[in-house]
Every structure is written in structure tokens, then in C-alpha cells.
Amino acid sequence: MTAPDASSAQPPVGPRRESDASSGQTVGGHRTSRLVLVLSIVARMPQGLAPLAVVLLAQERTGSIAAAGLAGGAWAIGSAVSQPLWGGFAGRGRAHRVEAVTALAQGLLLLVLAFGPWEAETALVVLAAAGGLLAAPTSPISRTLWPQLARDQHDLDALYALDATWQEMVFIAGPALVGVLVALSGPDAALLAAATCGALGGLVFAWVVRPLWHPHPAPASRVPLGTALLGLAGPYAALCVMALGLGLVEVGVPAVAILEQNRAASGWLLALWSVGSLVGGLTASRVHWRRGPAERWPWLLAGVTLGTATIMVGWHFGLGWLGFTLFLSGLALAPSLAAGYGVVGDRAAAGRRTDAFAWTTTFLLLGFGGGAAIGGVLADISPTWTFTAGTVVTAFAAVIAFAGVPGHDRSASAASETVTAREND
């Protein structure tokens, strides 16, 4: 079901288009979109740095692995809640203010967490939850901008692909940088780096976004949030189930490394998985797709399923084969996420695109967290069980995409924005 679209009765919503008729000046374009992308990635660096740093800080302060796990879980829950919370405010026309305030507030809280005299488990868990809750809605804001900043459909597909690809790099580089900083100066240094990147990156990102954004319609003229989210039930379900499968694989790989008595191998194995995603995403950003996101997404998810199945078989032949199959499996990850973002952006109701992308992040986090929890139980039996479950789950995501996200014309609002962009190109 596609959410009703009120764009025909209302002025354009969300960020401004390539050309602002009132000023006669171009407010978007290739350079602008790339600048927004780069700044958004810098502002998202706390997503890759802070979770591991918080866990290590809690373990160091309390001496308890259980306390560290609670702190990490509190951060994850806070982050999942933060995106729809702040994304809703941003979607009502205050995107730059919400971004600046939350980025600065989270940066200050990370400094308090790092350099305050916190040793009690309760205090650390509460501060971790607050830190996650203050996560700036950088991702939904930037993804809301792509349809307006894109010059044509190919450029829009490329922006979604690059967004998903460089987001992957945040999760590759972040933990690696945390490891270096912790080895040199401890978890405090890693939290300082997260605070600096998040606060400064968020403030500059907010400054750049401000002239590209204008208020959405008055609340009374917008599609109700519940209706808008219901119209995206299919894409959300597919993304959440896909993330569930990724969480299973994420836990299965270290389990194999432990069985092979080579714990350190889990780092480079997961890195190969991410490198495959990076290669796939960069390649996808240069492809001129003949089909729209909804039509190609099920096939890309089928590719993720096939890749996960090769992992299920490959680990039996040693770590080298496991690394090779992880790389192959990763090739379809970023393109699949990019297609999913494209579907959400195309189907989002008028005035609700920012909300739609904010909830996308939440469903991905919930799916990944659930997969990690289930994977830990299955890995105690055998990594085969974990990878098998991952294969089945990703196959189910592809089925949902085939059945629940039919390849029909994009929503009227998204179509009109792309047409406008082409006319102004």
C-alpha cells in the first residue's frame, strides 16, 4: 500500500529544489550534493566511534563485562529512539537547528562521560543512554535532500549508493580508529574524537543545509504519521529483516575465529565483508540502472542471500575461504541498502520524507540488534546454525521485497521532484 500523497494540493515540501524560483539562484547541484554527502559522513562518525568507546570505557571504569554490555545496549536503544524523535522535529522545517543542537549536545555529553568521575555502573549506563538519545538526525536529513539535489534519476541512484557506501566506511574506520586511540591513550581519547567529529561536523553540516531547506506544510495539511508509516510497511519490513540477517553474520564470524583459535582474525574477516560492500557500492554508484529501486531491490536482496549461503559453506574450508566468501557476500550489501533507501524516498508521503528516513534507521538498528542477540545463541551450537539462519532470513527479506514492495510508479511527489530537477538541469 502506498501512502496518500498531498503534494498536488500543497507547495513543494522538504528541502528546496535545484532551482529556487523566488531567488532565481541555483541552490543545489553536483558540487552541493557532494559537499552535503562529505559533511554528513563526518557528522556521522560518532556512530562508528562512540558505541565501542562507551563499552570499553564502562569495562575499564567498573571492571565488569556485564556493565560494559549494559552501557553498549543503552547506547543502542537511545540511538534507535533518537532518529524518529529528532527526525520528526527536523521534518517540520527546523532541520539545521535540530542538527546543530543535538550534535553539540551529544558532543558535550561525550566529554562529560569521558572526563567525569563516573565509576558507578548506573551512572555510566544512564549517560550512555542519554548519549545515544542525543544522536543527531544527520542520516534522515541528508537522505531527504537527495531527491532535490540530484540532477536526474541516475544522479539520485548514485547519491543513495554513495550514502550507503560511505556509511559503511564509518563502521569500518570507526572501530579501527577506536582501537588505535585506546591503545595509545585509552577510551577517553576515543570519546574525545567522537565528540569532536560529531560536534564540529554537525555544526558545519547544519550551516550548509540551512539554505537548502524550507518548512514542510502545516501539520494539518500533512498526511498523518501513522498513515505515512503504514504506507511504508513493506520496505520497513524488508530492511528490518535484512538487518536481522546481517546481525546474525556479524556474530557468526567471530564465533568461527574463536573455534579456529585465532580471535584476532575476526577483525580482518569482518573488514573483508565491509570492503566487499564498499566495492559494490562504488560500482553501483556508476551504473545507469534501467529499472527503478523497487524493481531491482528484490534481486539485490537475492544476491545478499546467495552471498550469505556461500559463507555458510565457505567457513568449513578455513579462514581464507571464509574471508573470500565474506567479500563476495559484501558486494551486494551497499547496493541493496541504496535501493531500499530509494524505495523509501520514492514512497514517502508528502511532508513525511524526513520522518520516513528516520524510522528507516530505527528499523535497521532493531533488526541488526535482534540478529546479534539471536546469533549469539545459535553460535553456541555451531556457526553453521548462525549462517544458515542468516541465509534463511535474508531470503525472507527478498520475498518481502518481491511481494510487499511491488515495482510500480514512484509516488507523485518524488516523480514531480525528479522531473523538476531534469527541467532545471
Short description:
The protein has 425 residues and is mainly alpha-helical.
Describe the structure.
This protein has 2 domains: 206 residues, Growth Hormone, Chain: A (Up-down Bundle), CATH 1.20.1250; 202 residues, Growth Hormone, Chain: A (Up-down Bundle), CATH 1.20.1250.20. The protein is globular. Helix 1 runs parallel beside helix 6, helix 9 runs antiparallel to helix 15 and helix 11 runs antiparallel to helix 13. With 425 residues, it is mainly alpha-helical. The longest helix is centred in the N-terminal third of the chain and has 51 residues.
Give the helices and strands, then pairings:
Blueprint: E1 19-20, E2 25-26, H1 30-43, H2 45-62, H3 65-115, H4 121-133, H5 138-149, H6 153-185, H7 187-209, H8 225-230, H9 233-259, H10 265-284, H11 293-314, H12 319-330, H13 333-347, H14 353-379, H15 383-404, H16 412-424
Antiparallel strand pairs: 1-2
Helix pairs in contact: 1-5, 1-6, 1-7, 2-3, 2-4, 2-6, 2-7, 3-4, 3-7, 3-14, 5-6, 5-14, 6-7, 6-10, 6-13, 9-10, 9-13, 9-14, 9-15, 10-12, 10-13, 11-12, 11-13, 11-15, 14-15
